[in-house]
């Protein structure tokens, strides 16, 4: 094996000499590595530190694939993209070395901090001003026929979790379609749950910037901020205990406040989550209609089979008890989850040995024991109820589902059969309300004739309930509500 002694360093040698040296090194590696020079070369590269690796790749003309925060966020805002593209995006985010420590549920039942992908725009104020200037140049600004005062620019801040990640965004309201995805700028995104702790970790960096934006002068206009999002997100942003909050005996004397708001935006400038309210009310009404159908299915099953239970009343009572227990269990689980989040947050802020933190740990243990007791009761009651049949298998519920399909409402099975906004718009048309509710009495005429009168009475009540909600929905289902519409909505709600 020939090895030439160098008289000059490689950086000072000519290209021919460098080529000769590389050939000799390749031969030497083949001998030393036992015929595997590439494997030995890989091992040599792995021994280099990060700076040396980076320098080597740059000199070789090989650069790491990287994305600026603006590029990543521009892709992330395209929430209408197919799932396969979203998975590719997630891999790119995870591989871009933009990470942070976030709170996750631990296997032991508590909370733990783990590394997760995080991308954000450092200067939101600058981004807002850039978009305002762009809108001004292109003539996109509008004040919606006087709904927005001529001297103000309205800006909405909002957050939402979906697809495994949480997105914090802002929207300029002074454009023709303020809720459009093309008018939405995501300025912070992380791959974790939107718990109180994680929101503080990701958004505390923007406190001063949001305070600066509130009331900031841009040209001759004053910027006014609004907060939007679902109920759970808003309660977390404003430090409230929410519907399933802990320490209710104490917090009720302080307007359910647990801690300071993350952003100092007045409560009067919170946008009610109209879509979530609509979906919640419609789902509740549809659930009542479905329960009426299922009750008749249960009676029909008891009349046609000697199995299950000795009487409809016994079965119904057990079913009601199960529902009550499940509702109680759900509230207890939500309260337990909030306690765990608060323990994590308080431990980070004031330490684990503080008396307040210790009190939270005591409450958490008590809630855990109570959960175990409830779970045992639910399991016992569920074992009895499961002797019946699935709600979807009954003739009455099937007829209702057929009516739903006939009006073009196809629930997303991969989301647990949930409704979306367009489903509500379609179902609340007067003719479709009749079609849905009338399926109850029409099926009763064929399957349970002796219940026809009762089914007819229940149908009238349900039609009235759906119609009253449809009237409210048709009033507030607009971009903006003027004073006349607000009064009409108040009257409709009062009915």
Can you describe this structure?
By secondary structure, the protein is α+β, with helices and mostly antiparallel strands. The protein is 55% helix and 11% strand. The protein is built from 18 helices and seven strands. It has a seven-stranded mixed β-sheet. Helix 11 packs antiparallel against helix 14, helix 11 packs parallel to helix 16 and helix 11 packs antiparallel against helix 17 (452-476). The protein is extended. The termini are far apart. Mean pLDDT is 81; it is low at 305-313.
For the largest beta sheet, what order do the strands appear in spatially?
1-2-5-4-3-7-6
Biggest sheet character: 7 strands, mixed
In terms of quaternary structure, what is this?
single chain
The secondary structure category is alpha+beta
Low-confidence stretches: 305-313
Characterize the overall form: extended
Task: Output the helix-strand order.
Answer: HHHHHEEHEEEHHEEHHHHHHHHHH
Beta strand count: 7
Whole-angstrom Rg: 31 Å
């Amino acid at each position: 094996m020939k090895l030439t002694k160098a008289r000059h360093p490689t950086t000072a040698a000519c290209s021919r000499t460098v080529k000769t040296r590389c050939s000799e090194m390749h031969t030497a590696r083949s001998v030393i590595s036992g015929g595997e020079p590439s494997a030995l070369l890989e091992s040599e590269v792995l021994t280099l530190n990060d700076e040396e690796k980076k320098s080597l790749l740059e000199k070789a003309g090989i650069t790491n694939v990287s994305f600026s925060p603006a590029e990543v966020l521009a892709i992330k805002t395209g929430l209408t993209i197919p799932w396969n593209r979203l998975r590719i995006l997630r891999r790119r985010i995870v591989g871009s070395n933009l990470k942070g420590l976030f709170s996750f549920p631990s296997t032991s039942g508590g909370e733990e901090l783990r590394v997760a992908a995080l991308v954000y725009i450092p200067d939101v104020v600058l981004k807002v001003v850039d978009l305002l200037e762009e809108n001004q140049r292109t003539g996109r600004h509008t004040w919606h026929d006087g709904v927005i005062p001529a001297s103000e620019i309205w800006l909405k801040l909002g957050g939402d979790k979906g697809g495994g990640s949480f997105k914090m965004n802002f929207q300029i309201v002074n454009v023709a379609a303020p809720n459009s995805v093309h008018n939405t700028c995501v300025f912070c995104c992380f791959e974790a749950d939107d718990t109180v702790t994680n929101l503080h970790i990701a958004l505390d960096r923007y406190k001063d910037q949001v305070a600066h934006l509130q009331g900031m002068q841009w040209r001759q206009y004053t910027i006014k901020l609004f907060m939007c999002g679902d109920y759970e997100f808003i309660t977390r942003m404003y430090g409230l205990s929410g519907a399933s909050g802990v320490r209710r005996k104490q917090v009720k004397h302080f307007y359910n406040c647990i801690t300071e708001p993350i952003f100092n935006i007045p409560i009067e400038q919170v946008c009610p989550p109209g879509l979530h309210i609509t979906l919640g009310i419609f789902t509740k009404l549809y659930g009542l209609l479905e329960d009426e159908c299922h009750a008749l299915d249960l009676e029909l099953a008891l009349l046609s089979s000697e199995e299950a239970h000795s009487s409809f009343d016994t079965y119904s009572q057990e079913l009601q008890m199960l529902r009550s227990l499940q509702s109680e269990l759900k509230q207890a689980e939500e309260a337990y989850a909030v306690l765990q989040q608060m323990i994590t947050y308080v431990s980070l802020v004031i330490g684990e040995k503080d008396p307040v933190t210790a009190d939270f740990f005591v409450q958490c243990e008590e809630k855990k024991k109570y959960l175990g007791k409830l779970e045992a009761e639910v399991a016992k009651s569920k074992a009895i109820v499961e002797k019946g049949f699935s709600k979807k298998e009954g003739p009455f519920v099937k007829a209702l589902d057929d009516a739903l399909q006939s009006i073009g409402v196809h629930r997303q099975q991969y989301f647990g059969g949930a409704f979306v906004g367009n489903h509500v718009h379609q179902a609340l048309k007067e003719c479709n309300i009749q079609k849905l509710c009338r399926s109850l009495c029409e099926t009763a005429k064929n399957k349970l004739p002796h219940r026809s009168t009762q089914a007819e009475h229940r149908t009238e009540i349900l039609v009235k309930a759906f119609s009253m909600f449809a009237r409210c929905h048709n009033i507030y289902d607009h971009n903006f509500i003027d004073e006349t519409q607000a009064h009409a909505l108040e009257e409709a709600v009062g009915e």
